[in-house]
Amino acid sequence: xxxxxxxxxxxxxxxxxxxxxxxxxxxxxxxxxxxxxxxxxxxxxxxxxxxxxxxxxxxxxxxxxxxxxxxxxxxxxxxxxxxxxxxxxxxxxxxxxxxxxxxxxxxxxxxxxxxxxxxxxxxxxxxxxxxxxxxxxxxxxxxxxxxxxxxxxxxxxxxxxxxxxxxxxxxxxxxxxxxxxxxxxxxxxxxxxxxxxxxxxxxxxxxxxxxxxxxxxxxxxxxxxxxxxxxxxxxxxxxxxxxxxxxxxxxxxxxxxxxxxxxxxxxxxxxxxxxxxxxxxxxxxxxxxxxxxxxxxxxxxxxxxxxxxxxxxxxxxxxxxxxxxxxxxxxxxxxxxxxxxxxxxxxxxxxxxxxxxxxxxxxxxxxxxxxxxxxxxxxxxxxxxxxxxxxxxxxxxxxxxxxxxxxxxxxxxxxxxxxxxxxxxxxxxxxxxxxxxxxxxxxxxxxxxxxxxxxxxxxxxxxxxxxxxxxxxxxxxxxxxxxxxxxxxxxxxxxxxxxxxxxxxxxxxxxxxxxxxxxxxxxxxxxxxxxxxxxxxxxxxxxxxxxxxxxxxxxxxxxxxxxxxxxxxxxxxxxxxxxxxxxxxxxxxxxxxxxxxxxxxxxxxxxxxxxxxxxxxxxxxxxxxxxxxxxxxxxxxxxxxxxxxxxxxxxxxxxxxxxxxxxxxxxxxxxxxxxxxxxxxxxxxxxxxxxxxxxxxxxxxxxxxxxxxxxxxxxxxxxxxxxxxxxxxxxxxxxxxxxxxxxxxxxxxxxxxxxxxxxxxxxxxxxxxxxxxxxxxxxxxxxxxxxxxxxxxxxxxxxxxxxxxxxxxxxxxxxxxxxxxxxxxxxxxxxxxxxxxxxxxxxxxxxxxxxxxxxxxxxxxxxxxxxxxxxxxxxxxxxx
Length: 880
Ligand code: SER
Prior knowledge:
Bound molecules: serine
Helix content: 40-55%
């Protein structure tokens, strides 16, 4: 039974039982607590938690899953994978155990045809209800029902969220897989293979995976791995011999010219290529790009591990693109996203392999040297070596531990982690150095007394407020700030936006009855506490003063233009390049934006132009910009973009532009896109591995830039005595004319040389059958040399001595025809006395030599000396 049939029967079975078919969600979960999608239930988490009303009570899916926890096991065993397909049926407060268990049994036995006598089930140790359903309702023999503890029979996502006791179905693979046990799967994990997990979702757990509450309803979440079902149904000894993975193994074997099933080390390599080849393909299709952070690093690990295995198997040729193509051929029918994005996927993997291949050789040499030392000294691999390999050669740590592990050498991963931590600390410290924060206790005390700073700046640009605190530049508390002082003012309420989400803080003024100050910037001093960094410009400001806080509206609106433009740009990039083109960093300033995003390639001149055009077009479309607060889950359900790694509370602010862009964002925006005015993309370039940066000028700054360009054009036009419209044409004409002039000049020079050559030949001195040509011509050495060549061709038999002075040097070129070279005359020897006169040396061959020296004024003497030598040489040939 092929994998397609296994999926089809599952979908037909639950389809008949009124389950809504839901497509697999992306491997990038819409859930910031989770790195990668690891189960079919991930996308339904808000339904289980009761945060959202499900649109249907029953669902079924074939879900793409990735489990990074098993990465090191892949290859070593018959059943571990990073990427796999999970079949699942779900009930959201609808049916429960009483239906889920018999349905699973029916599908396993009747639908897929498993032999019931080989099946075992497990239940959570205290779940009598499940035990009875299997025994009485389904008719499983009680000795085939095993009670097990929380380690195996209480399921959670591994992060806070819904969880519950579970019950699993196992199949006995037989004696070839080890001894039978009365405890079945409780006694021998290898012989009894889990094929289906039924989770009775009824609890909510915290981050420590401790159940803390009952869920509002009782739910069902099941998961069955397609690859494991296929292994049994196709009667093969491991998942790597099933239809999909088996074909991948075959491709990997062909690529590396190795055979599966003969040597365990080779088998391990082929399994890694097969599994990692699939997982990288699916990860990239869903928008992950290789990088050094988070998901990108997981992807990088699988790709680099695969490359290293291929090299171990003896192939130096690229392999990743072929593995990706294999996955696309095999699975693109059921998962069209990988076929649709095939070109993109192949390009990403090829680049990564190219980058890593060179580093791999260097890194392996280092590691091998270290391993030899370690073995000789009876120790492991030190952390600093692992760090060097990571930092300089791009070795993921598990690659280093893998390689060392094969030689039974330990790696000091604790020391490695420390070095990594120190590196991160250094980077953080460097970032922080510019903004000292108020001491935490002072901030806490202020919040205790006056509450957090109330922000009213979404609606208001001015506000009457009270000064609740003043801090000097070291964060120490002050009661009063005198004229000239630079301090942080803390107000009870403020219209000033504090720097955040890429948008710079507001500027403006704070005015009291006894003094005033200019706000240079606004930033968060501590969570909930806004600091207005200000210079007291007149009088004094004191704690307790009532003040008027006024935001500089020009500065603020200029930032808002850039911020809204950033959202539109982000949307366009994702729309055009794919979901992987996510925001990786942004800076929003008055009139200027800088946006970093994940992408592997330059956008190109045309690409940048198209993006610019669409950006400006969307600005002029004058869509409304709407911001509202809502629950995190609602925001997620409407597809609002969250920035990975940002922490969001239960309530979030969503900013929508028109009907297209939706982002979680706390920043401020223009109400209508046309208020952005102009957006001019001024640059696009790379700022790191698979990281690109777009910079643009917005609003007045954009227009100023255009004006400056236009002025440059006007100036150029004046210089060219043309109108601006004619500039391009005129420059083109000038370039053509210049080329023509150069051509003519060159032709003139050639003619002149030819004429000079003719004169020289006719005036040559005859020595026997040979001719001796000599002349001074103050041209460049190159011209001298080519003239000598020409003359050599014209005189039949003889020697040439030419001299020139220029740029403070005297130069000589000598040439001798072939017949005379054969008779022993050498241009080098002829020039030697001349070179001495010039105070220099020379080089070249017997038929053509060049020499020169600094005595530029002695060129005539030098020529004479060389001619004398030439004459002697020719005479001695003539008389011999
Ligand atoms: N969520 C459970 C699992 O992943 C059942 O689908 O095993």
